[in-house]
């Protein structure tokens, strides 16, 4: 059984020795994105709530030196993703029905991938089709393919989460880490980094196990940060059945404070790995790869800075920053989902 929430619970300081950054055109990107949202009129989510996601700020922190037009296209997907997540993934008729969610996921994925887009009448499919067209207009075919494959990975992960919810299944920690890599939306978000930068990373680099490990590590650090940010809010809404804190509470007889401490230790060991592995990847990498790696780091830091300001997580307080990891051990975590990432530190 999960433990009751203590309303006074405070977040522990974040270990993230990466400087903050923000795209200089963030205000203009937000204005243009809001105009697009008003035209799309996505149902089921209020305009105030959608604008409150501060999606322009979110992605502009990830790609502070990106091409403005390209960053705008990516920002539209972030707004779309928050709306789709709120209305089709976390709540609503599809959120606990795999049989209904999967056809919907297939429809929107088809709308993203198909240039013609005939017969689209769902506002979410139409909006995603428009985003796909924008990507095809500003990105290379390889970048578009990488994004669509990452998008499919996200939807598949959400389908797994929906199935767990429908079956009242609480995953163990290793299973949860594998699940969270899909559900967090990190894959499509990170796939948009090189689109935002306007520079394609060579396939020999991007498809290598080392860069794949680094990318997933960045995504998982940000996902666990979001779990820690959102735990109290989700508890009040009854949505914590799949959160790293709840998984730890379910798996071992932790107190809430012990579970949060264990979650931060896990997260900090991944953060330390990211720093070491990013240094390893940058050495000898192409200029596009080095810029991509920089943006992965900006993404981890930017996700924290954004979460501390966004209305979605307001009222959680300011945890501050830590100069060192809560758990400084350099050895691999004992979970098969992530343990192989440490192998990529080898020369």
Automatic annotation (TrEMBL):
Keywords: Lyase, Magnesium, Metal-binding. GO terms for molecular function: metal ion binding; terpene synthase activity. Its cofactor is Mg(2+). Its EC number is 4.2.3.-. InterPro entries: Isoprenoid_synthase_dom_sf, Terpene_cyclase-like_2. It comes from the Bacteria. SUPFAM superfamilies: Terpenoid synthases. Belongs to the terpene synthase family. PANTHER family: BETA-PINACENE SYNTHASE-RELATED, TERPENE SYNTHASE. This is Terpene synthase. It comes from Crossiella cryophila.
């Amino acid at each position: 059984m999960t433990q009751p929430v203590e309303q006074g619970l405070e977040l522990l300081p974040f270990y993230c020795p990466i400087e903050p950054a923000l795209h200089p055109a963030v205000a203009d990107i937000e204005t243009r994105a809001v105009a697009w949202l008003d035209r799309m009129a996505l149902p089921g989510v209020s305009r105030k709530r959608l604008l409150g996601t501060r999606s322009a700020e979110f992605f502009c922190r990830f790609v502070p030196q990106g091409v403005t037009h390209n960053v705008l296209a990516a920002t539209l997907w972030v707004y779309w993703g928050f709306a789709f997540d709120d209305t089709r993934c976390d709540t609503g008729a599809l959120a606990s029905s795999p049989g209904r969610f999967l056809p919907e996921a297939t429809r929107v994925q088809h709308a993203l991938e198909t240039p013609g887009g005939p017969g689209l009448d769902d506002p979410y499919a139409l909006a995603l089709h428009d985003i796909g067209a924008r990507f095809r207009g500003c990105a290379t075919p390889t970048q578009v393919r990488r994004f669509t494959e990452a998008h499919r990975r996200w939807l598949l992960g959400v389908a797994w989460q929906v199935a767990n919810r429908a079956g009242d299944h609480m995953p163990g920690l290793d299973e949860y880490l594998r699940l969270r890599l899909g559900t967090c939306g990190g894959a499509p978000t990170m796939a948009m980094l090189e689109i935002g930068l306007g520079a394609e990373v060579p396939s020999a680099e991007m498809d290598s196990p080392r860069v794949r490990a680094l990318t997933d590590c960045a995504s998982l650090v940000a996902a666990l940060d979001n779990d820690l940010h959102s735990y109290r809010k989700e508890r009040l809404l009854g949505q914590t059945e799949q959160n790293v804190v709840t998984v730890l509470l379910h798996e071992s007889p932790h107190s809430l404070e012990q579970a949060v401490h264990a979650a931060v230790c896990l997260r900090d060991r991944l953060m330390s790995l990211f720093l070491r592995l990013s240094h390893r990847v940058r050495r000898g990498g192409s200029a596009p790869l080095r810029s991509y790696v920089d943006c992965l780091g900006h993404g981890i830091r930017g996700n924290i800075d954004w979460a501390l300001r966004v209305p979605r997580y307001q009222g959680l307080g300011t945890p501050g920053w830590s100069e060192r990891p809560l758990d400084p051990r350099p050895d691999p975590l004992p979970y098969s989902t992530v343990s192989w990432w440490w192998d990529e530190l080898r020369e």
